[in-house]
Amino acid sequence: MITHTQVLILGAGPAGLAAALYAARADLNPLVLTGPELGGQVSITYMVENYPGFPEGVEGPALVQRFKEQAEKFGARLVLDTAVAVDFSQRPFRVQATKTTYTADTVIVATGATAKTLGVAGEDELVGMGVSYCATCDGHFFKGMDIVVVGGGDSALEEALFLTRYANTVTIIHRRDQLRAGPLLQKRAREHPKIRFLLDTVVTEILGEDMVEGVRLRHVPSGETRDHPTAGVFIFIGYHPNTDLFTGQLALDERGYIVTDKFTRTSVPGVFAAGEVADSRYRQVITSAGMGAAAAMEVVHFLSG
Ligand SMILES: Cc1cc2nc3c(=O)[nH]c(=O)nc-3n(C[C@H](O)[C@H](O)[C@H](O)COP(=O)(O)OP(=O)(O)OC[C@H]3O[C@@H](n4cnc5c(N)ncnc54)[C@H](O)[C@@H]3O)c2cc1C
């Protein structure tokens, strides 16, 4: 079966849902493929405190639920399906999803980004058994336990602070001697009584048979290794853009992000990109949603041009 639409939006995170709202309000009846995670990364975020309009903060799932309701209210159609192949070589564009084939006059790519893995022994085997990439999802399993967080950026410190709600201690392991996180977050983490730091240190293996029991560490300057007991390993070392299926179809930069101009236009006229799939710099709900809105406005412009 082939379904045709004027506007096909790939992704239902803040960028895709904001694009859907704007395209729907322009009477374009957009179709949104949600992909594997309706709501995107926000749906696994405990609390968003920096989205304007919510001075008391808002839980991530509640925020994206409101995004979704608002887009649907104006006629956006959300489909629980994932794009697996695209052909942007001619119009209408063709997108093969797991259930249906879609053709579209315009496409907004908003497939976001995914957490990076350490790639060490034991990691894949122990996912869900103590290895986690989502504090909100798994933090409550570690009540009263000693856990580690791997990473030194904003996400790592934010999540470490969140995990102190549950854990007895949270040890932040970072491969360099300086953290990358912003100064305010660093101050909060350093002042927190449950947080400890192991800097200049890398995890070389995650230990345990059926459950995580520890991590093998290497101190980078000295090369010394030792085992550190822990019940949980939370990994926050960055993201890679979900652009594999656009290789050869759209111009990507050296890290795989979609290249756009300042009007969200990709290398293919009629295909636009918004949010973290095209933004390695800002990575926020508001900036992603803003790019989604801009992409939808560009679609309106393109279709009427
Ligand atoms: C733990 C955590 C905490 C955060 N806290 C904050 C915060 O407090 N404040 C803040 O502003 N930001 C925060 N962020 C960042 C924020 O969530 C992201 O910047 C934002 O979600 C990016 O939106 P996006 O729409 O570009 O992509 P994503 O949210 O990554 O959404 C991508 C969407 O694309 C879909 N998709 C993927 N592949 C396909 C495919 N092949 N076909 C169709 N659909 C596909 C996915 O299912 C998903 O719906 C946090 C992120 C994390 C992980």
Briefly characterize the structure.
This protein is an alpha/beta fold. It folds into two domains: 2-115 and 239-304, 3-Layer(bba) Sandwich (FAD/NAD(P)-binding domain); 131-235, 3-Layer(bba) Sandwich (FAD/NAD(P)-binding domain), CATH 3.50.50. The protein is 23% helix and 28% strand.
Topology record:
Layout (H helix, E strand, L loop, with lengths): L1 E9 L3 H12 L5 E3 L13 E2 L9 E2 H14 L3 E3 L3 E5 L5 E5 L3 E9 L3 E3 L15 E2 L2 H4 L7 E5 L3 H10 L5 E5 L9 H9 L3 E4 L2 E7 L6 E6 L5 E5 L2 E4 L3 E3 L29 E3 L11 H20 L1
Parallel strand pairs: 1-2, 1-8, 2-5, 8-19, 10-17, 11-12, 11-17, 12-13
Antiparallel strand pairs: 3-4, 6-7, 7-8, 9-18, 14-15, 15-16
Helix pairs in contact: 1-2, 1-6, 4-5
The protein binds flavin-adenine dinucleotide.
- Mean pLDDT score: 95
Alpha plus pi helix count: 6
The distinct bound ligands, ions and cofactors come out as:
flavin-adenine dinucleotide
Number of domains: 2
Major beta-sheet overview: 7 strands, mixed
CATH superfamily of the largest domain, please?
A: FAD/NAD(P)-binding domain
Number of extended strands: 19
CATH topology of the largest domain: FAD/NAD(P)-binding domain
Strand content: 25-35%
Low-confidence parts, pLDDT < 50 over ≥5 residues? none
CATH architecture of the largest domain: 3-Layer(bba) Sandwich
Estimated structural class: alpha/beta
User: Class of the largest domain in CATH?
Assistant: Alpha Beta
* Rg, Å, rounded: 21 Å
Order of H and E elements = EHEEEHEEEEEEHEHEHEEEEEEEH
Shape: elongated
**How widely separated are the two ends?**
30 Å
Share in helix:
10-25%
